[in-house]
Amino acid sequence: MPCRDGIDFRISLQDAHKRLDAVLTDRLPDLSRSYAAVLIRGGYIKVDAVERKPSYKVKSGERVAGTLPEPEPAAIASEPMALDIIFEDDALIVLNKPAGLVVHPAAGHAKGTLVNGLLHHCPNLEGIGGEKRPGIVHRLDKDTSGVMVVTKTTQAHHALSRQFKQRSIRKTYLALVQGAPGEESGMVDLPVGRHPVDRKKMSTISRHPRGALTVWRVKDKFPGCTLLEVDLKTGRTHQIRVHCKAMGCPIVGDPLYGARLHNHRSGKRQADISALLASAKRQMLHAHRLVLFHPITGTETAFSAPLPEDMQTILDTLTQLNASNG
Hints:
It contains seven helices and 17 strands. It has helices at 20-27, 33-41, 114-121, 154-166, 239-246, 268-278, 309-324, and strands at residues 3-10, 45-47, 63-69, 72-73, 85-88, 92-97, 131-132, 135-136, 145-151, 170-178, 185-189, 193-194, 202-203, 213-222, 225-232, 285-293, 300-304. Strands 5, 6, 8, 9, 10, 11, 14, 15, 16 and 17 form a ten-stranded mixed beta sheet that branches. Strands 1-3-2 form a three-stranded antiparallel beta sheet. Helix 1 packs across helix 2 (33-41). The N and C termini lie far apart (71 Å).
């Protein structure tokens, strides 16, 4: 494997008795702990010319030396794809992900994913974790649209990963839900984990739950449904969808957590609204706004994406139906 930058330093008294992989990541902050361990096991980094384990406790005065291998080509194929890019520089790509697009290849989705398209769009990626690939620091469900940030470099990847972990990144969604909450605003503080029976679902009742906090406020009201503005304080899988269901207001069109629509009221307008909501082909959930600190400049920057056509059409029609009854 071809190599690039050389590493050569002595262990200080301050670093004595620390793990070798920890010392390496302290010295090279762009290097993840897991990738440092890979390099040590692969013999790329040695201590006094001797191969050691990642857990080796270093001693004062020992010499740590070696080289960083060149990033390998990604195992995922690149594919030409039209991308709606909001912002791009040497560190980041911020894009408006359409509904229906899977973020990362997985079983059943080996091709046609966002990562496939990004590999084609960015053929000269620096490399993350020893592989030339884009850095996925957060994801949106296949049928959720909206703002998503992807990193181009290891430094940017680590910086944004820390921001997500520290919850300094602010994520705001728009969700059209069935029914109406009892208040104008509120929060859902319920843990989310894998459903104990249905492995495709997440649930607030789980064997291995993780804390999850969702803050919401009513943005607009319609007969039989409500548009919510949702601030995601944690980033659990399906969190908004699960929490909206727990509120008794599942997201319109959600195939996993939604409820069947029933027309309990008589009249043409109510029938039209029920038919309109039932026509939604996917969950009406959109990542509207993302606020982060740029990983290189440190500047706080906000990005937003307009509602997609399918969601905007439903909201426009609801507004018209409301007005016609006025």
